[in-house]
């Protein structure tokens, strides 16, 4: 099976980069006969650098724009429609609905963007992947009328390089010495955002000044959205009885973070909300016992020896810490943890492959191709402007602008989408030529505009016959018939929009 993994680049969301790279690492743990052919797909210079740095995890690296020509069976992930490939089976990914649970953490425009993009991912493609059962349940509450048979859960695991599991604490001892960390400590590895709830930990330590426990927190104390929150943490750390039991590392490298994680006695995860906690998965891999906030996703993850506490009750965490210190669970050896985790990762990898095969089988280009989904979504969203708090004229304009951006290098798909919308019975159809097609061409590179003007599927009978001939061997299959119908539709477009541009 040929799988394309899209390498994201977003300096504000490196979790997305690590998510994709971990999928590649996970698939590489399968026996050789089960491993798919992996292609890293890139669309920015930064993504190309990341792909090159991790080239050993893939069989090839290719531009995302060429996904259709690579004959891929499955392309993943797309967190919004403009990230979906044209001409290849694909699946959307909805990590979580944090923007609905904690709207105060997001600007209104970001809430609206996520709502519109996630809604179309839940409705349009052949498959939509969710990181947790809670994400599925949240989506079902928001859109109770949507079909759900193509919604799939993928609990992503932590995957480490082989060298990580080697015995010996040299790296850990070196890093501990660098940050003056004692031998016995608990660890929390989260950004210091308000919803990550570090404040509860220092408040719990303040409430138990005699409790003999040390907590290491990786990262820098800052949350630009809520500066008072960071100040509250610093105020408590000014107390000597709290400061002596806490180490704040500030920003450290990934290797340093993992070294500290390997040396910890256990972990604390106090978050108010998680999509699927990478930190918990990394702790699970090592067999670390942990104290977790009692939220649905943590209950769903439930690593061994978990102790749950109320994330809104300082006394609940303080008591949990006391019990943990009084009778700490034993953590397994690295060798035992590695063996157990290898079986867990293999199970997750096979689940991912099942999702890939499901998507490839279900994919109907007339319904699920990115162009077809956009052609269905744009008129539907346009009709709903003003009827839903997240579907405003401004949010629709942002959504459409983002969509146009993805079409500037794809003139053939632009023509196809424009033609499909123009033939639909919708209010947006009368406006699509200007709002979608001409607006896209206005900002497109000159060579792309020329390709659009030269594009003439109706007259290219030789190509048409060749494509039809290539399908004859499987013409009786539903997928082949759908592909043929899609091609016939393309060849019926005849000069769509070109006449408008030249008139």
UniProtKB/TrEMBL annotation:
Domain (Glycosyl transferase family) ranges: 183-340
Entry-linked Gene3D superfamilies: Glycogen Phosphorylase B
Q: Which GO terms describe its molecular function?
A: glycosyltransferase activity
Which InterPro entries did the record assign?
Answer: Glyco_trans_1 (IPR001296)
Pfam families attached to this UniProt entry: Glycos_transf_1
Highest taxon listed in the record's lineage: Bacteria
Alphabetized UniProt keyword annotations: Transferase
Q: What is this protein called?
A: Glycosyltransferase
């Amino acid at each position: 099976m040929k799988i394309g993994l899209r390498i994201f680049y977003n300096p504000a969301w490196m979790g997305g980069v690590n998510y994709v790279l971990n999928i590649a690492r996970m698939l590489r743990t399968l026996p050789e006969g089960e491993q798919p052919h992996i292609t890293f797909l890139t669309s920015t210079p930064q993504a190309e650098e990341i792909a090159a740095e991790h080239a050993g995890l893939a069989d090839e690296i290719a531009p995302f724009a060429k996904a259709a020509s690579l004959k891929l069976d499955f392309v993943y992930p797309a967190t919004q429609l403009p990230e979906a490939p044209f001409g290849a089976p694909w699946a959307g990914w909805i990590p979580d609905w944090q923007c609905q649970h904690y709207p105060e953490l997001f600007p209104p425009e970001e809430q609206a963007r996520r709502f519109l993009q996630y809604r179309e991912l839940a409705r349009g493609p052949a498959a939509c992947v969710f990181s947790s059962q809670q994400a599925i349940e949240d989506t079902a509450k928001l859109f109770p009328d949507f079909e759900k048979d193509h919604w799939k859960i993928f609990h992503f695991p932590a995957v480490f390089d082989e060298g990580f599991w080697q015995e010996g604490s040299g790296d850990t001892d070196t890093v501990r010495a660098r940050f003056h960390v004692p031998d016995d400590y608990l660890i929390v590895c989260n950004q210091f955002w308000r919803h990550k709830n570090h404040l509860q930990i220092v408040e719990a330590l303040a409430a138990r000044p005699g409790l003999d426990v040390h907590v290491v927190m990786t990262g820098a104390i800052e949350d630009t959205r809520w500066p008072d929150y960071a100040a509250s943490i610093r105020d408590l750390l000014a107390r000597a009885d709290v400061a002596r039991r806490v180490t704040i590392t500030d920003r450290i490298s990934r290797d340093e973070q993992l070294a500290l994680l390997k040396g910890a006695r256990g972990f604390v995860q106090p978050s108010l909300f998680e999509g699927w906690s990478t930190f918990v998965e990394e702790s699970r891999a090592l067999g670390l016992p942990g104290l977790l906030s009692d939220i649905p996703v943590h209950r769903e993850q439930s690593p061994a020896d978990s102790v749950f506490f109320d994330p809104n009750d300082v006394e609940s965490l303080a008591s949990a810490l006391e019990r943990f210190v009084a009778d700490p669970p034993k953590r397994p050896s690295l060798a035992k943890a590695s063996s157990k985790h290898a079986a867990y990762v293999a199970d997750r990898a096979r689940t991912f492959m099942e999702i890939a095969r499901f998507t490839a089988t279900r994919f109907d280009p007339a319904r699920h191709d990115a162009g077809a989904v956009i052609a269905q979504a744009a008129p539907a969203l346009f009709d709903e402007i003003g009827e839903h708090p997240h579907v405003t004229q401004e949010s629709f304009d942002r959504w459409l602008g983002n969509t146009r951006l993805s079409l500037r290098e794809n003139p053939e798909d632009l023509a196809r989408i424009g033609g499909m919308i123009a033939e639909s019975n919708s209010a947006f159809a009368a406006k699509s030529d200007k709002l979608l097609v001409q607006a896209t061409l206005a900002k497109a590179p000159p060579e792309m505009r020329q390709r659009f003007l030269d594009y003439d599927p109706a007259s290219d009978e030789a190509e048409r016959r060749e494509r039809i001939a290539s399908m004859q061997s499987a013409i009786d299959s539903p997928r082949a018939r759908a592909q043929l119908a899609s091609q016939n539709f393309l060849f019926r477009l005849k000069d769509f929009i070109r006449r408008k541009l030249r008139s």
